[in-house]
Specification:
By secondary structure, the protein is an alpha+beta fold. The protein has helices at residues 155-167, 175-180, 251-254, 296-316, 382-407, and strands at 24-26, 35-36, 47-50, 55-58, 64-65, 85-89, 102-106, 113-117, 123-125, 132-134, 147-148, 187-219, 222-248, 277-278, 288-289, 326-356, 359-368, 374-376. Helix content is 17%, strand content 36%.
Length: 408
């Protein structure tokens, strides 16, 4: 802009640096309807999951059908190498704490008003006509995810898995637990997760050693083994595509509490999330569920730490030549693109609350309701454990003394 000689030119504002681009949101509830979800054949609303087939089954006419709306058809699967920025399903958007979790529907069968508390359920039954009403459109309180992975392992199989797991540990189990243990009390629960695809670029720079020879030298009365090694500058740089990384999105599960065995859930991974279908409240009928209460920004650091671990593991596979080890002096993993999908994953749970003089502790046995993988925590009979440990230690001491005497 022109200005008069001797006059002070008008101030110019410094350019504001552009922030990161806004996430690209893929609407996953397009076409989803709240209220009556009817059987495709007879129009009844008594719909539930048939765990043996993974399909939805009408409780009236027994007609069964499969959902064909998958991650791929929603545009949330494949092409990890082309990811740039942040892509997320609409069920993964930030939770708005002020959102009213109580939703009122007008029953389209009889006209009555029915209330659903989405903090605890996404289904309710009309108290007049007994039809089931479902909540399938997403509200910003974490109650409705993008996809759900249906139960496949029947309850009877889960009961058998839990019984087998506990039976192998009864010798050291607390007597009260053994007396009260009843695997029939197992419950099916959908737990909230984020499923993450990541396109990253990893760079590692450091030094590695390769042994060239080993030899023995005498130092007084003792011998010492020495090594010669060549030292190399080592660098690794590669693209990394992480597919279907699962991160817990319940803050209670993330907080590794000292009063419960939360980390057990991670031991029954992985889930075949590629077989997940678009969320439908009918898949939840007969099962409990937890609501997501963590946002992508809360979970991204956890996911990125795991991605760094995956990158280091991938680099380590190429270091066989350096038999004396490699020291990385510089590590960098840049996330180029990431895709987040909110999911419900199925778990069978048997829980047991142990009360002691020091407080209470929640033990549980978890079964992956897709693969049958089982892991758990059983209360320990500490006096028996200490007694057995003392006996083993005494036997070890005696054997050690005998070996010394024979050797002498």
């Amino acid at each position: 802009m022109d200005h008069l000689d001797g006059a002070t030119p008008p101030p110019t504002s410094a350019p504001v640096p552009a922030g990161p681009p806004a996430p690209q949101v893929v609407r996953t509830d397009v076409g989803a309807t709240d209220g009556l979800v009817k059987c495709l054949r007879c129009g009844a609303t008594e719909i539930s999951l048939n765990a043996a087939t993974g399909g939805l089954r009408c409780g009236y006419c027994r007609f069964e059908w499969q959902s064909d709306v998958t991650l791929a058809s929603l545009g949330l699967d494949g092409d990890i190498g082309g990811l740039s920025g942040v892509v997320m399903g609409s069920g993964s958007e930030d939770i708005i704490p002020s959102t009213d979790v109580v939703v009122t529907f007008k029953c389209t069968a009889c006209g009555a008003e029915v209330v659903i508390d989405t903090a605890h359920s996404t289904q309710a039954r009309c108290h007049w006509c007994r039809n089931t009403l479902s909540m399938n459109q997403q509200v910003p309180n974490g109650a409705v995810p993008d996809v759900v992975l249906p139960f496949r392992l029947p309850k009877e199989a889960a009961v058998a898995k839990i019984g087998e797991f506990v039976s192998k540990r009864t010798f050291f189990a607390h007597p009260t637990f053994k007396a009260e243990f009843n695997p029939e009390n197992v419950m099916g629960v959908y737990l909230p997760y984020m499923v993450v695809d990541v396109n990253a670029h990893a760079t590692f720079v450091g030094q590695g050693e390769h042994k060239t020879r080993s030899y023995t030298v005498k130092k007084g009365d003792k011998e010492q083994v020495l090594f010669d090694a060549d030292v190399y500058d080592v660098a690794r740089e590669f693209d990394l595509h992480v597919d279907d990384l699962t991160v817990e999105s319940s803050s209670e599960r993330l907080e590794r509490s000292s009063t419960s065995a939360n980390n057990i859930i991670n031991s029954i991974m992985p889930f075949d999330v590629e077989n997940a279908v678009r969320y439908d409240a009918n898949y939840l009928a007969g099962f409990a569920s937890e609501r997501r209460d963590s946002n992508v920004d809360d979970l991204a650091p956890i996911a990125h730490v795991q991605i760094g671990d995956i990158a280091r593991n991938r680099a380590a596979r190429t270091l066989g030549f350096y038999d004396r080890g490699v020291r990385w002096d510089h590590e960098q993993v840049d996330v180029v693109g990431q895709r987040w999908v909110a999911a419900y994953l199925p778990v069978w749970l048997y829980s047991y609350h142990q009360t002691t003089s020091k407080g209470s502790f929640l033990h549980y046995v978890a079964v992956n309701a897709r693969t049958g993988e089982t892991m758990g925590s059983v209360p320990i009979n500490r006096p028996r454990l200490l007694a057995v440990s003392a006996v083993v230690q005494a036997i070890g001491t005696v054997v050690g003394v005998l070996i010394m005497l024979v050797g002498g």
